[in-house]
Amino acid sequence: MIGRLNHVAIAVPDLEAASAQYRDMLGAEVGAPQDEPDHGVTVVFITLPNTKIELLHPLGEGSPITGFLEKNPAGGIHHICYEVEDIRAAAERLASAGARVLGNGEPKIGAHGKPVLFLHPKDFTGTLVELEEI
Ligand code: CO
Q1: Is 54 a catalytic residue?
Q2: Ligand 1 geometric centre to CA of 70 (Å)
Q3: CB–CB of 54/44 below 8 Å?
């Protein structure tokens, strides 16, 4: 059912330092920071030949990654995103298999303007999984 790895999202305490590290130490193609007020994050997209890395930093009050950074002050992998062709079919299949879809179970429009949903990390070996319809 799942297709390509779309991105790995890493929450970082210092967006500028993390961007510089990927650009200067690792020689990656690093974009400019983009505020995503609807998602409570500022994102830096890093384009690799076979996937993307997204550096996430809290934006505004009540950001969904504030608690994560409190628990992981040095930063850490926040979620991984797999591509699916039909997100509603994927959600139904997962729910019937007992996996918990976060929120109200309905796909939302994600940071790339495509429908996404998140699966409970306790159902996926401690990893927050995002599915994005491509
Ligand atoms: Co994501």
Answers
A1: no
A2: 19
A3: yes
Q: CA-CA distances (angstroms) from residue 64 to 34, 75, 86, 91, 132? A: 16, 14, 26, 22, 18
Q: What tens digit of pLDDT does each residue of 94-118 get?
A: 999 999 999 888 888 887 889 999 9
pTM (2 decimals)? 0.93
Could you tell me the distance, in angstroms and rounded to a whole number, from the CA of residue 27 to the centre of ligand 1? 22
Residue 94 CA to ligand 1 centre (angstroms): 19
Domain positions in the chain: 5-133
Among 87, 92, 91, 65, CA closest to 76: 65
Q: Which CATH architecture has domain 5-133?
A: Roll (3.10)
